[in-house]
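Notes from the 1:1 (GR / supervisor)

We went over the backlog. Supervisor wanted to see one worked example end to end before approving the batch request, so GR pasted a single chain during the call. The sequence is below; no edits were made to it. Supervisor asked that the structure be written out right there so they could see what the output format looks like.
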Amino acid sequence: MDITKILVLGSGMVARPCVEYLVRNSNNEVTIASRTLAAAQTLACSLPRVNAVSLDVSFSPDLDSAIAAHDLVISLVPYIYHAEIIKLAIKNKVNVVTTSYVSPAIRDLDGAAKKAGIVVLNEVGVDPGVDHLYAIKTISEVHAKGGKVKEFHSYCGGLPALECSNNPLGFKFSWSPRGAILSQRNSASFILDDKQVDIAAEDLMATAKPYFVMDGYDFVAYPNRNSVPFKQFYKIPEARTVVRGSLRYVGNPTFIKAFADIGWLDATEKDWLKEGLTWTQIHSRIAGANDSSENSIISAIKEKCKFLSQEESHRIISGLRYFGLFTSEKATIRGKNLLDTLCEQLEKLLSFQPGERDLETHTSTLELLGDPDGYSAMSKSVGVTCGIAAQLLLDGYPALNTHGVLAPYEKEICDPIREKLELEGIMMVERIL
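Structure output shown during the call:
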């Protein structure tokens, strides 16, 4: 049989489980493309028929030719780059798979993708992804018995296991730090008692409320992006409430809000942000402090953040100190912006260490602990789900070979992915209460 050439864009934590699944098929040849060649080489190490190249999707003139040289592109880079990647794939008539939501920019390319005769398959990770597979299964079963879905709630959290969560964010990065943080900076909409509720991005973290999932865990939940269309996507017109959300440990949303209030989550380029600056100098400037002393910076932060209590103020300030943002150490500048520079620092401090594991939990319920000697639960479940969906597309499975922009909202797409995923030991535990 002919060799199938697959281009994987991104060498983050979910990429290797995806590639490992794909190379089980001896006809697949994979090229891993990353901004840094060393990262791609590390991921490709010891895997058969896998090559590594350096490619920066944000501006590389070689991206067009790289896509043209392959039969399938799997985009695991931040979602802001997907639309441009898909445009090049349309130009070169190459199928695309992403784990991200179908954004308006991607949806606008549906007609062009159909005209080019390609498939753009999205939302085949965990959230979104595995949640769709089991939502469609459960809803179909309820409807088959003549029942109605009056309320639909779905929450996901890719979190460190409790014993590994002892840091100010209560979080460790099992996927892109930038992506993880930006996911908490979206606006959100959902349906509650037949009424649409809209939350602005800057207010999202303040809406986080305690949410019980299982004994021994203190979770908070907040709505994730736009849940409103899922009343139609999931074919539950009878539902009076539809909410899809995210879980974090208590305290995390407050800290993310503080980062935003101070200015650390600004992704615009700054001419003044250059190598040689210390964390204190940067912190002082963005906080609007009178000078670079710690006391002055703290006073400016308190003025910006308007903490609700002395306890909250102490916790956030202590956390900023934990992350080294009051030190005279020179910062590693990334992307000429504050967000990427902060993410670089957080990734150094909050990556999973050998022997640590993560916890992934959905209500419906997937409770999956990572392997301390292997992959995190998040990287495995996202990567393997993506790999399965990509292989089904390559194998010509009919429902996944419908031209245009696709997402797994139909039973015909969800069932084959779910069945293969369960063979990998990734499945929901379904309980009737």
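Supervisor's comment: The chain has 16 helices and 15 strands.
Batch request approved.
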